[in-house]
Each structure stands twice: as C-alpha cells, then as structure tokens.
Amino acid sequence: MYTSKIIGLGHFVPDNIVTNDDLSKLMDTNDEWIQERTGIKERRWIKEGSGETSSSMGAKAAKIAIERSGLTKDDIDFIVFATLSPDMYFPGCGVQVQDLLDMPTIGALDVRNQCSGFIYALSVADQFIKTGMYKNILVIGSEYHSGGLDISTRGRGVSVIFGDGAGAAILSRSEDATKGILSTHLHSEGKHARELVVEGPSIARWVPEYKNNPDDLSYYPYMNGTFVFKNAVVRFSEVIMEGLQANNLGVEDLDMFIPHQANLRISQFVQRKFKLRDDQVFNNIQKYGNTTAASIIIALTEAWEQKKIKDGDLVVLAAFGSGFTWGSVIIRW
Fold it and tell me: How much is the pLDDT for 219?
C-alpha cells in the first residue's frame, strides 16, 4: 500500500492590506475591540476591479507549489480544490485552475467544507494516492471573502474576521510508510448548520428575491459566535486526540500543531489544554484573518518556509467550522 507525502507548498495573498484602523473608518469598531476578540491585526482583501478571484489566486499558489515540488504541471494527475467562495455558482474552481495552468485534461474535484475544506481535500487526495489511482495530486484551498461581506456596523461581528488568500500543496506517492500522511479523521454534525451559514443565493433563495426585498440579509454570512466557539474548542481537542491515538502517539510526540486560523482565542485555548509551547503551535491569523479553506495551507506553507518544520517532525493539522464539520491530519514530515 502506498503512502502520500507533501512535496511542494505555495501560497498567494493579495497585496492590499486592510488594518483594523482601516475598518474603523467603515464601521463602528476599533483595533482594540477586534484584537481582543479575535487576535487579528490586519487581513488581505482583493482590490475591487483587480480581476482576482478564488481560482486565479489558487492557480498562483499552485504554480509555486508545483515549482517547489520539482514536478511540472504535466506531472499532475488530479486536482482537488477547496473553497466556499467559487468564482461562479457552477462550474467549480477546479476546472478553472486546470485551464489557467494549461494542464492536461485531468480530473478536477471541488470540496465544499468551508473551514474544514483543506482537511477534507487533503484526506480525499490521500485516499486517491493510497489506493494507487493517482501519483501526484494538486490540493488547493482558496477564498475570496471580501466581496461578500456586510462591511458595516451591522455586519462587523463577521466582516472583521475574514480575509482573502490561497494556498496549495502537491501530494505525491511514496513507498516509505514511516513518513507522509499517517491518517486523516473527518466528522460532521449537520444539526448545527445554521449557526454559521450563508443561506443564499441558492436554488431555494435565488437572486431576484433579494432585489425585491432589500431587508433580506441571508446572502451575508451569519455566525452565532459564542456557540461556534464553544463547539470548536471541544471538537478541536477530540479530533486531535483521535488522530494521535490512531497512530499510538501522544501529545508529547507532537512537534508542530497548525490549527485552522478561525480565531486566535480558540488556538490559544487548545494550546493551553494540551500544554504546548509557543514553538509547537503556528498562528498567522494576526496577518491574514480567517481565510477559511485557505488558512491551514497558508499557515503550513509559512511554517515550512520559516523552517519551523523539519524532517521527521510530527505535524498535526486540525480544523473546525461551518457544517458543523471538523477533522485532523497526522503527518510525519
């Protein structure tokens, strides 16, 4: 049986930096209020009219990952693209990346698991490789949030959190069973779906309804923040332990924990619970905000670029978010 190994990483974020002070000019908020609740200092937002999209950012991150892997675009057998903010209602971003990178007519799959999107995408790619179906898979997480936020005092509880960006990884077949992805663990609990949701546009709630009803705000993200936080800290802990125990490992074996960058307070809670040192946890939400499906892969790329991950390290990725969905990935680097 094959194992899968990450052999290339890349990320891309827009140049446009939006600070908390910038947001205070658009809504009733301030830097202290945002940092106290989220840990975020700034985020990247696509500039209106730039033409940047989730697929174009994903393609740029993918180019970097492919180059670093030592492969070419023609060596890639399959694409898995995770996003909640596709360029179009359909088709998905995966096929657009295939076109943008002028790749062969390989398959492309889109994953819609929001904050857990990259974890799910990595798990799907891992299974394809372990079964022998594909050798090299491009996995992307990319989000264009800023175009769909309620950037006003009314929407500040959500809009201050999110940022735009993309990351990509090349997952490749390996015959070394001691390294690579050891296991992945996925969960969902749909009864809480409406606690973190965008209800429309959708087939049930289509665009003309909004044009005729200016008071309908269902196309803006809604989040029951306190409820999400309480569930997140529990599920994070559960799924981390599930992954470690499945591989006969303990918290003491962990070298680097990279959580989904949802809220710095969640990451800090989990860090304290597991008694992890600061150098065992990587956070960059301070710079980028919550980039949903892109957050873990951007953080993983930066941690690797900063040499915080070395050969043989045990790396744990974990996410929790809308759905509710959550999951973890256990990697021996």
Answer: 67
**What's the rounded Cα separation, in Å, for the pair 259 and 8?**
20
CATH of 180-332, one of 3.40.47.10, 3.40.50.2000, 3.40.50.1240, 3.40.220.10: 3.40.47.10
Model confidence, pTM: 0.92
What b/e readout covers 177-211, taking b as 16+ CB neighbours within 10 angstroms? eeebbbebbbbeeeebeebbbbbbeeeeeeeeebe
Based on the residue annotation, tell me whether 136 is a catalytic residue of this protein: no
List helix spans (H) across 192-293. Answer: 207-212, 225-246, 264-274, 285-288
Say if residue 209's pLDDT is above 90: no
Q: What is the arithmetic mean of pLDDT over 32-40?
A: 96
pLDDT of 294 > 70? The answer is yes
Catalytic entry in 115, 136, 185, 283: 115
Q: Please write the tens of the pLDDT for every residue from 139-166.
A: 999 999 999 899 999 999 999 999 999 9
Dihedral sign (CA 208, 88, 6, 307)? negative
| DSSP SS3 for 65 | helix
Whole-angstrom CA distances from 44 to 27, 47, 222, 319 are 18, 9, 21, 21
- The answer to whether residue 20 is catalytic is no
**Where does CATH 3.40.47.10 sit in the chain?**
3-174, 180-332
Per-residue pLDDT of 45-86, as tens digits, reads: 999 899 999 999 999 999 999 999 999 999 999 999 999 999
Q: What residue type is assigned to position 299 of the chain?
A: A
Active site residue 260: yes
**Is 3-174 assigned to CATH 3.40.47.10?**
yes
Catalytic option among 185, 260, 283, 284? 260
